[in-house]
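Box S1 | Example of a co-folding query
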Amino acid sequence: MKNRFRVSQLALVSFLLYVPQAESRWYDQETLEQGSIVFQQNCARCHMADAEGTPDWKQADTNGNYPPPPLNGTAHAWHHSMDLLKTTILEGSVNSGGLMPGFKDELSDTEIDSVIAYFQSKWPDDLYQKWAAQNQEVEFPSTPPTRVKAGSTSQDNNKLTHLFRMRLGSDKVSDPVKTPIDGIYQTQFGKNYAYLASNGRYAFLGDLLDLEQDQNLTSNARREIAAPAPNSLATEISGNSTSRKMTDLLKLRLGGNTVSEPVKTPVDGIYQAISGLKFAYITRDGRYAFVGRLIDLQQGLDLTDIAKRELVKAEMNLFASEDKAVFPAIGAEKAVINIFTDTSCYTCKKLFEEIPNLQAAGISIQYLPFPDEGLNSPGYETLRQVWCAEDRAKALTIGKGLEEGNLPAGNCIDGDLVDKAYALGNRVGVVGTPAIFKQNGKQIKGYVPYQQLIPKILSN
Ligand code: HEC
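Box S1 (continued) | Returned holo structure for heme C
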């Protein structure tokens, strides 16, 4: 059944965003042990036993090839989506002129997953959390569920979990239990939790925080710690100060200094507040917050994702086309994409070489500069030079080392666009390059071969 949504293991990771701890990794001990063996047998001879890579990995040899980089979080591997990591291991880089062999004939899918788990286990928690945040892959179909299964609507409990079970395509959803929030019920599936509201129509996927007690009720539940009793003294404040109290606790706990005014959601008594691209859903008294996503199970819509895309779209529109490096579509324009790029990034270069294929498919490409290593890095300087050039598209080709030529000095006014684009990238959730944004605000992370990229861009 294609219409079901898939909750991949990765998606489940993203539920745990605010509890950076080993138990929130997507893999279990067994996978890790298998991965360790696969790694030692297939990868260690190049990437070294602890995935630390070769010391000179940043230095290309005389043929322009790079030595095996670290996979332990100190290089770029953590910038790559799960898909891209898998593709790299399956295909290697030999066909595109690199030195890494492909493993599609040697390793099974599970072995590849396990070997990824192995080198990810070397990543520090903060990096892993960043990666996980970028790899939320729960997909919700837009078509409503087909038919109510006979016999499953008889009890209230069933009604509450019915849509969720159906969307999940699984009966492994526990019976709902009460939470300290009126009208919200917790249910468990696998190791994960969802919070159901309004008779099962809406689900919060993510962590439920008690902001007042500074407790993560979801991770407490996971460790079977009972929720603190609802505080009978917590009074609902009315009038102007309501939203301040709601957001003050949120700021305090989430460490964001700009939290938007809370606005109503379709769930009674729950308000949405935004900090950057982080969404929180808070109770009227400001005591509890869900961090994660709000799903309309009836419509099959990820309401958080929709709202997030609108934010991204609005942000992206603030950056004028004439401030980018533009590669127009050939023939009728079918789509426009924005790509954040760096001159020193290997996969950016690969994508850049395939730009003519995208143009031929009716796609216009607008490049924005994003120095991966941050401002004041060598990449930043090169990008400034490119943005100072008369013909940026040509300068970008030179900057990426794909054409001979000179770049102007980077100290012109347009060079400041690099700073501006870098700030924009950080606001819209770029963690690594290349980062591709469709017109609808959706981000495609990392390099995707053009044969697969074109349909991704042209579809919704
Ligand atoms: C013969 C040496 C060799 C072997 C064996 C090898 N690799 Fe690589 N790997 C490389 C090189 C070299 C690169 C750098 C870029 C390039 O040439 O494509 C690389 C790049 C990578 C990357 C991308 C890293 C980044 O920062 O973008 C990943 C992921 C990776 N290898 C994983 C593996 C895994 C997992 C295995 C074992 C199943 C493996 N490699 C085996 C040489 C090797």
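Residues 42-43, 45-47, 65-69, 71, 75-77, 85, 88-89, 93, 98-101, 103, 115 surround heme C (CB under 6 Å). The two ends are 20 Å apart (CA to CA).
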